[in-house]
TrEMBL record, chains A, B:
<dbReference type="InterPro" id="IPR046335">
    <property type="entry name" value="LacI/GalR-like_sensor"/>
</dbReference>
<keyword id="KW-0238">DNA-binding</keyword>
<dbReference type="Pfam" id="PF13377">
    <property type="entry name" value="Peripla_BP_3"/>
</dbReference>
<dbReference type="Pfam" id="PF00356">
    <property type="entry name" value="LacI"/>
</dbReference>
<dbReference type="InterPro" id="IPR010982">
    <property type="entry name" value="Lambda_DNA-bd_dom_sf"/>
</dbReference>
<feature type="domain" description="HTH lacI-type">
    <location>
        <begin position="2"/>
        <end position="56"/>
    </location>
</feature>
<dbReference type="GO" id="GO:0000976">
    <property type="term" value="F:transcription cis-regulatory region binding"/>
</dbReference>
<keyword id="KW-0804">Transcription</keyword>
<protein>
    <submittedName>
        <fullName>LacI family transcriptional regulator</fullName>
    </submittedName>
</protein>
<dbReference type="InterPro" id="IPR000843">
    <property type="entry name" value="HTH_LacI"/>
</dbReference>
<dbReference type="GO" id="GO:0003700">
    <property type="term" value="F:DNA-binding transcription factor activity"/>
</dbReference>
<keyword id="KW-0805">Transcription regulation</keyword>
<dbReference type="InterPro" id="IPR028082">
    <property type="entry name" value="Peripla_BP_I"/>
</dbReference>
Length: 341, 341
DNA sequence: CTGAAAGCGCTTACAG
DNA sequence: CTGAAAGCGCTTACAG
């Protein structure tokens, strides 16, 4: 292994000079800098990450904690990871990806051993058990998803309340008066997936404000159960003209369900979902949807995190709680209802 | 930050004794070991990863290089990553996930700075440009996917030739005499996705051996283009009674295509794919398929890699090239053909 | 069974 | 503008 000592010898300077020549942290004569760079090239030197981490107390690595729950739809997760990963790289950081089920011990391991300079948490629950660990850690943290208590971390999330209102109003404005909202499985809510009821509560309230009817239901997150469940829901709610889908698996199953029941969108039913454009493409979903912007949210979280790591955000600067405003991507799956209820 | 020095002082022993007490690398009196463990607990000590890496020349981290190509189906990738990640954790390793498009420079960065003890490569191409870098590195490497030259690395892949033969024979045995194989987009092949033509060549050859007709076609990897393409293919091949699908996106699009054309499986068409069971569930695919076993392959790669890292495999021990035998998961989508050609 | 010391490969005040 | 030295927090031969 070639070390900075080898480089220094080859260039005929001291190790400190070699180090400074490479970091640029103090002025170096043009000639020496050149000799050092030359030596680096001929020897094929690159600094040892562990040694540098030890000396600087920085690893240039970010811990990314993601969990793949059986009742959450895996393809939807992937995009958050990609968003985080891409932006991190742009900022010069690598990603330590942890997917183990015991997030608390994983988080403790990464932070207490100083493997990482900061933490990004995905699948954040209302009362996330990883949060106390994260707050106790020396490293800063950024979350995608909003917990009940946002103290001590930067938080980024879609504005699910606004999303719920927007979905209701969009259909209301078209003339719909009887709606059905299909959410993630109840189990997600119980685990603390607060966004589910955040969207739902806001939708229910908005329906009340508008004076229209909105029924709500949970549906499984796995195929093929979800398809069957959605079919049964449509059957049980014959008067519904507008369907809101806050459940990726249900959205993915919907084309088949509609086919089977001989229904056409938006002629027989207006549909509006909540998922990303990438997700829509992957599953060929022809439904208008509130864009969930996973890559954008992941990227924002990393950027805020790196700002804290690098001290551009003061240690006492207030933490951010940022809501991304929902945007409706129109794919033509909504129209005025054919029949009035 | 609490160091091993603090632990030693608290326990009233030397730093080396504290270290040995924790590592168990030499015998320690029961009493001292107890005092050290007590000190660790009261101080909340955990070793600094960078310092340990520097002293031991081991990071207990594995680099995982994955690329998300536009023309490969992202949900299919995810499972390899999960397989690698889960097994790595079981073996006590963390995963540094790299998804950047320039795999060569990423690989160089990870290996030359000694951030990782070994490398797992996904999306391996026939002439993968990352391989020369990997061979030149000090760390061992394991691949999921077989390149033309397997020297210097451990290789794990599905036996795509056997898969092709098996798919043909399965339909042949049922009485089919006119088949169509839909593969990944030609672009994947051009980039070096050799498994595509490996399966195809073997299928073509097997059809020749059996004396039956097998047409081949490429299809896009994105929705909705792939659905349209598959529909047109079925139209252009009216005599076909058996469809082989080596293209995840095409498989995912198929239910809709069949619906649109009013075709029933297996009454009007027998279908056999090549994808994982998890993938089948995610997309509700009712088609029998050769299991692509992504988690198993990923896990095998990590296990072999760790064996090399930890020196259980000698440096000169021959490298492994392991083919997983294809297994057909029967979902009832094949039957004897209704009409003879 | 235990301790004092060297060394892993960097960075960065301190001195000139 | 440059060098000698200390220090980051570990592990592990060396000595007893």
């Amino acid at each position: 292994m070639v070390t900075i000592g080898d480089v220094a010898r080859e260039a005929g300077v001291s190790r400190s000079t070699a180090s400074y020549a490479l970091s640029g942290k103090r002025s170096i004569s043009e000639e020496v800098r050149h000799r050092v760079e030359e030596a680096v090239r001929t020897l094929g030197y690159s600094p040892n990450a562990g040694a540098r981490a030890l000396a600087t107390a920085r690893t240039r690595t970010i811990g990314l904690l993601a969990q793949f729950y059986d009742d959450e739809f895996a393809p939807a997760m992937m995009q958050y990871i990609q968003g985080v990963s891409n932006v991190a790289r742009d900022l010069g950081y690598d990603i330590l990806l942890v997917t183990e089920s015991d997030g608390r011990s994983a988080l403790r391991r990464l932070t207490s051993t100083r493997m990482v300079d900061g933490i990004v948490l995905l699948n954040v629950a209302e009362h996330d058990e990883r949060l106390p660990v994260l707050r106790a850690a020396a490293q800063p943290g950024a979350l995608v998803g909003r917990p009940a208590d946002c103290a001590g971390v930067d938080v980024f999330d879609l504005d699910f309340e606004e999303a719920g209102r927007q979905m209701v109003d969009h259909l209301y404005d078209l003339g719909h008066r009887q709606l059905l909202l299909v959410s993630q499985p109840e189990h997600v809510v119980e685990r603390g997936g607060a966004y589910v009821w955040r969207l739902q509560n806001a939708a229910v309230e908005q329906a009340r404000v508008r004076g229209i009817r909105l029924d709500t239901a949970f549906a499984p997150a796995r195929q093929p159960e979800v398809g069957r469940a959605v079919g049964e829901l449509l059957q049980a709610h014959p008067g519904v003209t507008g369907l809101l889908v806050n459940n990726e698996a249900a959205a993915a199953a919907l084309p088949t369900v509609m086919h089977e029941r001989g229904l056409t969108v938006p002629r027989d039913l207006s549909v509006i979902g909540r998922y990303s454009d990438e997700f829509a493409r992957t599953f060929s979903l022809p439904y208008s949807a509130i864009e969930s912007a996973p890559d954008r949210l992941g990227g924002m979280a990393v950027r805020a995190l790196v700002r804290r790591i690098e001290g551009q955000t003061g240690h006492d600067d207030p933490h951010i709680v940022h809501y991304v405003s929902p945007e409706l991507v129109d794919r033509g799956s909504t129209a005025a209802p054919r029949r009035r209820t």
